[in-house]
Amino acid sequence: MQDSNVRPISVADEVKTSFLDYSMSVIISRALPDVRDGLKPSQRRILYAMHELSLYPPKKHMKCAKIAGDTSGNYHPHGEAVIYPTLVHMGQEWAMRETLIHPQGNFGSVEGDPPAAMRYTEARMTHLGGSLMQDMDKDTVDFVPNYDERLTEPTVFPAAFPNLLVNGGTGIAVGMATNMPPHNLVEVVSAVCAQIDNPEITLAELMTHIKGPDFPTGCTILGTSGIREYMETGHGSVRIRGKAEIVQNGNREQIVITEIPFNVNRADLEKKIAELANEKIIPEIAGIRNESDENSRLVVDLKKDARAQVVLNNLYKHTELESSFSVHMLAIDGNRPRVFGIKDAIGCYIEHRREVVIRRTKFLLGKAEVQAEKLEAFLLALGHLDDFIKIIRDSRNRDEARANLKAYTFSIPTAEHLGILIRSQPSIQGDRYVFTDKQVDDILELRLYQLTGLERDKVKAEYDEILATIKDLLEILANEIRVLTIIKDELRVISGKYGSERLTSIQAVEGEIQNIDLIPNDPAVVTMTHFGSIKRTNTREYTLQGRGGKGLRGMETRQSADEEDKSDFVEHLFSAHLHDFLLFFTNTGRMFVERVHAIPEMARTGKGRSIKNLLDLRPEEKIAAVLTLQAVGAEDEAMWAPDKYVLFATKDGTVKKTALEEFKNYRKGGIIALKIDEGNELIDVVLTDGSNEICLVTREGMCLRCSEAAGTYQALIVDSETGELKETSASSSGIRAMGRGAAGVTGIRPEEGDYVVALTVVDHSAQLLVVSERGLGKRTPFAEYRPTNRGGKGVTTMNVTEKTGKVITAMAVHDSDELMLMTSKGQSVRIKVGGEKGIRETGRNAQGVKLMNLNEGETIQDVAKVMTDTEVEGENAEDSGAVSPGAELPADEASASGAASETEASQGEPPASEDSE
């Protein structure tokens, strides 16, 4: 027979219902604070258990084990192991802006050290913790049965101060979480009073009272936009920064950190700084030590040549010395979770205190009326003392005496004559004053000494006082303004007694740290190998040598995983400042953008890191060219000048011109810079003004000079008879500007087997330097190359032989320039272009000079201009001719590239050769 109490239930429905019930239980009864007193149930029960134990100051502290045990046994049956951490948290000065519990013993530390066991620690409430329960015994809040219905507990505390705003709180419920920042008690009380005075107060007006969060660990808030956002919507993010100062210690500087951001573990911060130093992310750090006592003090020692402000900015970036505090002001309001703006939260607190004051007033009124009723009976009895004594003496027992007294009445005038307050109570029947049962019992309890004249006067005075109290209480209940005034007055008393100065300062957003502010704008040499390792090195690591030197050991190279018999070699080398932007162009025609400082810094002999950690390159891609652009302004808008163009040259002699601003909307994953057919690849990229002349140089030593602008123009050439410069008319079909997706037009037509190796902009204040792979080079005025139309084969710029080796690169150079030469074995040499030991200026037919001695099997793989020594110190940048921010440079000076090949290396000077067309 089937049980009638059993019915089928859908499992899905049951799971849904049970989960919702569990979720609401966690949300309402465990995880989220109440908007009225700012406490979670566990916190409220701990404080109430301490209230029951009378642990108010200045009483002695009591063992935390006793407090946790009473809380668990009477109100919060979830075990002492979860109660004790909550108790400890309310006593930690670095966790609570205004602690609610006064600890005694080890309550942990800001470094994450755990507290001692509860049997060793003691606690009592602070004055503010006790004020949360002030007047709780005056029927100001509701009580409900505890978990086993043996006792009762309050559903909320009267909360004499706005604890939710002052101390904030965190909590994670099911599907929601709260994270409220703490605020200054004095400011919050001022804001509450202002909102009471003006319920229509604006957020801007409230923010004149509450400046923002006030964290117990001090620190600094950056900007006010996040503060305004969370105060208005309940959501927002506030950037906070620890307090640090730079101090001089002998001939070195130190960074002393005295305040850390809220909720940051000091020991973890110390460990992170040490890791950054060990991993050379911030190599200027020499050491760190913790000198903290009751106050935080982390001392970061710096190396002798370190820039302290730069190191400090890096600490802000890489560590939690600067962090974000995400605000989500979610709390329980009327048994429902709700997100509050600051004004709504204050409004809820005001309404709660209004209810508390009204309920307290009604409670006090009831007590006063009971006392008045008793005193009325005394006064009436004392006024007719003989009659009352006779009634009591003639009665046989207490019950008869009660009945006889009950039957005794007074006329209203008689009562008024005795000063009795005539109230609308059961005591009044018609024109007679009749004793209530309570009054009769009070009369029977009268003691003989109370019949004396002095006692009568005392009763009358007490009665008059209680009448005045009743009148005042009735006025409070009838006058809303009185209620609100009481709220303000009580808050101001709390603020005056326990308020403190603001700990957290607020700075304007102008001081926000960006990447460009994190490093000095030092010069660096960037090197990249054939197999894709990249690094940057400070130019000071390269010493100046004369022409023909053996060079320093440069970048360590790796073995290819696929070609173990081939060593890696440096394929690209260029110089730039750390603030500059790098536009990386791949051989397939894509472009990436990164800052120089984003490239890992290593020593001259370092191997570098894979560029794939920096750029999202495809397997078949490699970097063909790099443009360096100076960052201008906060948004770097001026960098993308509308009157500048990017000119591309591909291996097959194709050229294309595209406006620089078309590359403005770059993406992290790269964008298409130009269309390249299969089998072709990008060789070089330069920056032009749209009317420059360019030179295209091939591997077999051919050079074509043409103009990128269409039409007839005046070109400088060398007079074949006098050898002097003269102007001549030249015509050009030009290179029209195209979009990023275009393929381009023919620039030079190389012979079969030949291909383009370099692209440079003509600069008549400079010369064209041509370098061969066997270490020979020569520089020739651009005027030696006659201008032609694009699409030709060009003229000879170097007679390529077995002794010279093929041409590897060509570029415009000045006498003041310095060059960095890198070989296939990683050797480097830095030489001057001009001077006695420099590169001799010759005609186009000259042989050239030896630039670098090479070992057997070694070849020159790349050449780039580097900054002069004066530029390294920030002087005479205009005269150096090197790549430097602020100078308007020809395009080839903003790039360096090369296509490397492996050929036999030889030394010696090649013979002169005839020009060929």
UniProtKB/TrEMBL annotation:
Pfam families xref list: DNA_gyraseA_C (PF03989), DNA_topoisoIV (PF00521)
GO molecular function: ATP binding; DNA binding; DNA topoisomerase type II (double strand cut, ATP-hydrolyzing) activity
InterPro entries assigned: GyrA/parC_rep, Gyrase/topoIV_suA_C, Topo_IIA-like_dom_sf, Topo_IIA_A/C_ab, Topo_IIA_A_a_sf, Topo_IIA_dom_A, Type_II_DNA_Topoisomerases
Extent of Low complexity compositional bias: 892-909
Region (Disordered): 871-917
Keywords: DNA-binding, Isomerase, Topoisomerase
GO cellular component: cytoplasm; DNA topoisomerase type II (double strand cut, ATP-hydrolyzing) complex
BP GO terms, sorted: DNA topological change
Annotated catalysed reactions: ATP-dependent breakage, passage and rejoining of double-stranded DNA
Enzyme superclass (EC): isomerase
Highest taxon of source: Bacteria
Catalytic residues in the record: 120 (o-(5'-phospho-dna)-tyrosine intermediate)
Enzyme nomenclature, EC number: 5.6.2.2
Annotated family: Belongs to the type II topoisomerase GyrA/ParC subunit family.
NCBIfam families referenced in this protein's UniProt entry, alphabetically: gyrA, PRK05560.1, PRK05561.1
Name this polypeptide is given: DNA topoisomerase (ATP-hydrolyzing)
